[in-house]
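note to self — DONT lose this again. spent like an hour looking for the file last time. sequence + predicted structure for the chain T wanted, 442 res
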Amino acid sequence: MLYRLSLDPEQVYTCEAKSPLGRKPRSTLRANFSFIDPDSVQIASSSSKVNLCDNNNQVQVTCKISRDHVSPAPTFRFSVDGPRSQGPQPGTDSSDGNYYQSRFSLSPDVGGQYQVTCRVTNSVTNTWQDKSTQITFNKPPPGPPQITIGGQTYHGISPSNIVTMAEGYTGDVTCRVEGGYPGAHSTQLKCGQLENTGDGNTANVRFTTVTLTRDLDGTVCTCTSQHDSGCYNNRETRYTLNVLYAPEVIFTKSSPSTEFNKGDSLGLTCSAQGNPDPTSVTLTRERNGDIIKSVQSAELTHTLNSLDCLNTGVYVCSGQNSQGTTSEEISISVNCAQQFSPVFSPSPKVDGVLGETAEVDIEIYGFPEPSVTLQRILDNANLTSSSRHEVKYTSTVAPFGFVNVTISDLVKADYTNYTLTIDNGVGDALIFSFYLNEGEAH
């Protein structure tokens, strides 16, 4: 007789028959079946997210299968797919009354997304099942934020902690954090009143609408950033702005007045401040560019003793350094009677052609500006406001000026002697006499 049985593994089965003679032959069978049930592998990690900080970078991955779902005891192999991949390798096997299991330790030194796969294999049938789990390892960036100014990069805090820039710079200041997993975030750059926070690993400050000025000299700029690991200890870079600028000049005089009398004294003080320090301070007279005094320091003093008319004019104080030259001016006037210019020799005879125009020019100096009167000596007539006579004074470079006399449409009666009176109310008037002589037409 043949029976078809449903057999259980690891179970002993007995078949017994009875003969006509009463004998009972018996046969026993121990069944030992090999199988692995589908979707029966379980995998779990001690953490799905790990921060790669000191003493905190190991994750235990446990892979197990119930004894009811596999026979005989399987083998376990682990593989890792990620920034640091690993091929199949064994774990540490163990078992209890209910499960076969194996443990695998993952401790990478590179941040990233890792996938750990456990393969459970039935060695008899050579069939297997795979089960995977994802683990994220956050690793902070290796270095502090980097600051770039005008194409030059500053890494971390320099020994001097100083960044030198020239006044007027209108480019970008960029703060960026390199490396790490994932990238840094909430990167903030503060520079004086300028501030910007970037969503990612970069923040910019642009000196455009607000140019880099000397007021920012000594300002501390700070770049900070955050990282998901929570252990980014290099998250800050600080530096101090060293702003180079041309000298700022302060030019003063010992008296608040701008007008002086002959014989007075006047002290002039000129100081300059810049970055770097001024290399020289120079005092000049504007009208001829003569250097009155120059020093290789940041301050100059000079006294104008016994002022006279020729001291009238504009004085210029200049401070110079590697960033340029800056100047300030002071204008003074010294009261004095009008005089002929030292380089002018007036001629007592002026030629003029009938029907044409004759001109007389006289260079003088003095202060204040004078009034001018033209008289004909013959009849003592005042010709200053005559329709054919024009008399005017034109100031040039203080205290110098010109007196111009123009006589138009000459007639015979114009050939005579004249007196030109130049008077500014200080001292005696300046008198110039000339004779208009009839010249030949060309």
